[in-house]
Amino acid sequence: MKLVYDINDKPPFGKLLVLAVQQLLAILAATIAVPTILGLPAQIPAAILGAGVGTLVYLLFTRGKSPVFLGSSFAFLTALGGAMAFGYLGIIVGSVFAGLVYVVLAIVIHFAGTKWVSKLMPPVIIGPTVALIGLSLAGSAMGDLVKASAATINGSYNLLALLCGLVTFFTVVVCSTQKRFKTMKLIPFIIGIGAGYVLAAIFSAFGHAFDVEYLKIIDFSYIVNNFVNADGSFVGVTAFLNYPDFALIEAIKEIVAGQAGTTSANPDAVLLNGQGVAEVALAFIPVALVVFAEHIADHKNLGSIINRDLVEGEPGLKRTLLGDGVGSIAGTLFGICPNTTYGESVGCVAITGNASVRTILVTACMCIVLSFLSPIMSIMQTIPSCVMGGVCLTLYGFIAVSGLKMFKDIDLGENKNLFVVSAILIAGIGGLAIQIPYQLADNGQVVKYITVTSIATALILGIVTYAVLNKIEKSKLGQDSEEPVSGDSLPAAAVSATVPLGATEGEEVKDDVPSEAENTASESVSDETETVPEEKPEE
């Protein structure tokens, strides 16, 4: 696609700030969702801080060659839930294990190269996997689109919320496709979120004025609680400036107290011990190995959008892996959960045509600064789910379409390709996940297990299917090449040509007398030889 700003381009400073805010809004919903799902809503500023720190580390390792933002990873949700049994220290240790998997893979690629990766995951596997990443998020986007309050995770259906979400969606679409105003085309998400938020605020104002819950689309309690305590007193300085409760500080508090449950959201948590380290490693390492394939898919997708090969070219897979792995560790230490490259960020690049790495850099710095500004954090948390759902309707759609674009080089008329694509899409959309038990209770019931997500499971199934069909295909070709040649199926001249000189008794022996065709060919060669003048040596 044609980019408005390429990787190394420098947008004007004012426009750069606006573009960075847009990137921030694009990744905001998913970044704050992970700590909320884990039952740690107080750590939302820490998640934003960790995303900013992790992205800076990623940009450092990739030398500013890959314009993508890192945010909280959904792939590790189950592993994080298990690690919380050992408090914040368990979360940190698990993230370190996951990051080290990427580091080890980067070292392997440094010595073995990336060709094996391309053979393991060709376009027939990467294409549907990228499409699946977008399609698998469709349910989340549509669930948010009809939900009123951002604070209500399982909110009920609200028709007015749907209206606000659709206003957001169509505003983004119109701004992105119109050709008259270039600035509008660069910041469609800011304008779209603004339009949806204003409409939701109008409904909410009537809802509070007439005490109608159905009209209260926006939950303003975040702003109120930021300034006022439960007893009605003023919060104090922390209402304006406060440091996030990130994992490293909380883990130190637990170690000093000698009890994980004192600060952990899990009151039954115990301080990490040797057995706990083994359990955490068992939960995080397999997931990290599978997420490695999603890492490749994200960078293949981003590369197709910005017309660069990020895997085998610059910065190269080993650098993106190091950036993602070390960035994830840093993001957890200064945040609350492991990070990963965000499809929302990739979708933002695709829709706006802005691939400037400086935008990602400023967004990361902005996240770090804003995480300490309590009023800004509280305002961002009031953005209703329906408005973010309208944005995600476009973002996730672009991710899916980017994967489908890779199908243009895939021959789906060939059954092998058809079965591989079918296996990936159906398994992924159907939600096939693998749960591997690793601890049983005394009564034989499974109490702990490793979960391989549906996308990862679909990817593994596609790789295995492709490998099996390739093996069968090569085996069949080998058998065909070893089949004995029947003389009845070939012309006599061809049969005689296949019989070696000195054939044994009972074999058809080729006559020593050259055939008429051979004589003609010989004479032709002789004539050509005579007509070629003798070359003179150069002086």
Q: Strand order, biggest sheet? A: 1-2
- Profile the largest sheet: 2 strands, antiparallel
The global form is: globular
Please identify the structural class as seen in this structure. Answer: mainly alpha
Terminal residue distance: 56 Å
- For the secondary structure, the number of strands is 4
Give the SSE order as H and E letters.
Answer: HHEHHHHHHHHHHHHEHHHHHEEHHH
Share in helix:
55-70%
Average pLDDT confidence is 83
How big is the Rg? Answer: 31 Å
Number of helices: 22
SSE layout and pairing:
Blueprint: H1 13-37, H2 44-61, E1 70-72, H3 77-83, H4 87-112, H5 115-120, H6 123-136, H7 138-145, H8 159-177, H9 182-186, H10 188-209, H11 221-227, H12 247-257, H13 274-306, H14 317-333, E2 339-341, H15 343-352, H16 357-370, H17 374-380, H18 385-405, H19 415-429, E3 434-440, E4 446-452, H20 454-482, H21 492-498, H22 516-531
Antiparallel strand pairs: 1-2, 3-4
